[in-house]
Amino acid sequence: MKSEMEQDLFKVLVTEEQLKRRIAELGGALYERFAGKNPLFLGVLKGSFVFMADLVRACQLKSDVEFIAVSSYENATVSSGRVHINHDIQQDISGRHLIIVEDILDSGNTLAFLKDYFLTKGAASITIVTLLDKPARRTKAVTADLVGFTVPDEFVVGYGLDYAQAYRNIPYIGVLKPEVYAGQ
Ligand code: 5GP
Ligand code: MG
Ligand code: MG
């Protein structure tokens, strides 16, 4: 029997198996770049929390973990363009090698803002890792250093990504049936 969440899905875009394989590759690439450098993984809440947990275990670097909470969406499927910091990091990041971990790079507003924000706080380097990249909708000139999967211009959920705060705990990436968000 399909779960109540799965009944809302139109299709699966990235399977659990594909996620696992690709995240192992990303972990390997990060290990090669950052072994011996004590990087700081900085997850962008809430969407990155599942990816973050798997990514840090896939690369076994001596490192620490922080989270920043931002929002720009307000329950709609299109960005408002403004980025709010809802919860800031608690430690000094000057001189640190930052690995920003994002769920999806869409318009680029969030990552363009965060890159500037952490550069002015004195990060030694900033590396952007995004699980998903949706290049079709980019309005800011920002690129990720490492991308898990490039996705088409569809609103995706699962593996940390929400629609109106739900569906984050689906263990893979899928697309909702249009009737689920009709009327927005
Ligand atoms: P931006 O437009 O600033 O690049 O994207 C910011 C945030 O919008 C992402 O981190 C993510 O939380 C949300 N977002 C963008 N595209 C999607 C999508 O297809 N599905 C979901 N669930 N969130 C998205
Ligand atoms: Mg995000
Ligand atoms: Mg969201």
TrEMBL record:
Matches recorded under Pfam families: Pribosyltran
Biological role: Purine salvage pathway enzyme that catalyzes the transfer of the ribosyl-5-phosphate group from 5-phospho-alpha-D-ribose 1-diphosphate (PRPP) to the N9 position of the 6-oxopurines hypoxanthine and guanine to form the corresponding ribonucleotides IMP (inosine 5'-monophosphate) and GMP (guanosine 5'-monophosphate), with the release of PPi.
**In which domain of life is the source organism classified?**
Bacteria
For this chain, the family text in UniProt reads: Belongs to the purine/pyrimidine phosphoribosyltransferase family.
- The Enzyme Commission number assigned here is 2.4.2.8
List each copy of the Phosphoribosyltransferase domain by range: 17-163
SUPFAM superfamilies assigned to the protein according to its UniProt record, in alphabetical order: PRTase-like
Q: Which GO terms describe its molecular function?
A: guanine phosphoribosyltransferase activity; hypoxanthine phosphoribosyltransferase activity; magnesium ion binding; nucleotide binding
InterPro entries for the chain: HGPRT (IPR050408), Hxn_phspho_trans (IPR005904), PRTase-like (IPR029057), PRTase_dom (IPR000836)
What gene is this protein translated from? hpt
Metabolic or biological pathway, per its Swiss-Prot or TrEMBL entry: Purine metabolism; IMP biosynthesis via salvage pathway; IMP from hypoxanthine: step 1/1; Purine metabolism; GMP biosynthesis via salvage pathway; GMP from guanine: step 1/1
Name the cofactor(s) required for activity, per the record.
Mg(2+)
Location of the protein in the cell: Cytoplasm
Protein name listed in UniProt = Hypoxanthine phosphoribosyltransferase
Recorded GO CC terms? cytosol
Give the reaction(s) catalysed.
IMP + diphosphate = hypoxanthine + 5-phospho-alpha-D-ribose 1-diphosphate; GMP + diphosphate = guanine + 5-phospho-alpha-D-ribose 1-diphosphate
Which stretches are annotated as coiled coil? Answer: none
